[in-house]
Amino acid sequence: MHETSYGARPARKAVLIDLGGVLIPDYLPAAAAAWTTRLGLTQQAFLGALFGGSDDQVLTGRVSEPTWWDIVAGRLGAGPGLLAELRQDLASREVWDEALVALLRRLRGHARTAIVSNAWPGTRARMAEAGKLDIADEIVLSCEAGYAKPDPRIYQTALRQLAATPGDALFIDDTPGHVTTAHSLGMTGHLHTSTAGTITRIEDFLYTQPHAITKDLDPQGRVRP
């Protein structure tokens, strides 16, 4: 594997990156397509049953995951067996972007890093099961912080935990409005649309010699062995 030189790094730079839709690519469209056919619902109705009203409830930790799944079951008219199958299917679709994970691990000690995610209460435990708690210096989850993006407070919490200023931080998310808030707070923002594009943006932000990291990727954005 190509060995990247970090000698030219600015020591105070920080990278803040989203979880769902970035480190874990968005699997909901495919899941919704499969389950709406089975349940006889529109995709809008299915996603509304899963997430409608969740922003100030389970997403901010005011409601537990089991309680929220009871709400979802009522909306879908799903019994315990069907609900368990749905939850297992959704969990099986969570696949980490290993190229971005590898990059974050290589950045440890060379730049300050944080995951900043709108996430349900079981997220940290699932990250631990996946062996991913060590990929960033800080993990800031909305269910633990009590507020969710685009609330400026979750961005400020992450910056405070990293001891970083907005001007030294790159914020990466797949939701345009979340990136807009980062810009309004003085951070550099990047809208994630591809693995290779995000890796290039990170190294351009951090290093004076760009593209050293992307040489470790194959054309599909995967880390070369």
Portion in strands: 5-15%
Low-confidence stretches: 1-10, 209-225
- Counting DSSP E segments of at least 2 residues, the number of strands comes to 5
CATH architecture label name of the largest domain? 3-Layer(aba) Sandwich
Output the radius of gyration.
18 Å
Strand order, biggest sheet?
Answer: 3-2-1-4-5
Return the domain count.
2
| Name of the top-level CATH class of the largest domain | Alpha Beta
Series of secondary-structure elements, N-terminal to C-terminal: EHHHHHEHEHHEHEH
Description:
This protein is α/β, with parallel strands linked by helices and about 220 residues long. The protein folds into 2 domains: about 15-25 and about 95-215, 3-Layer(aba) Sandwich (Rossmann fold), CATH 3.40.50; about 30-90. It is about 45% helix and about 10% strand. The chain contains 10 helices and 5 strands, in the order βαααααβαβααβαβα. The chain has helices at about 30-40, 45-50, 65-75, 80-90, 100-105, 125-130, 140-145, 150-160, 175-185, 195-205; strands at about 15, 110-115, 140, 170-175, 190. Strands 3-2-1-4-5 form a 5-stranded parallel beta sheet, with helices on both faces. Helix 1 packs across helix 2 and helix 2 packs antiparallel against helix 3. The longest helix has 13 residues, at about 80-90. It is elongated and about 50 Å long. Residues about 1-10 and about 210-225 have low confidence and may be disordered.
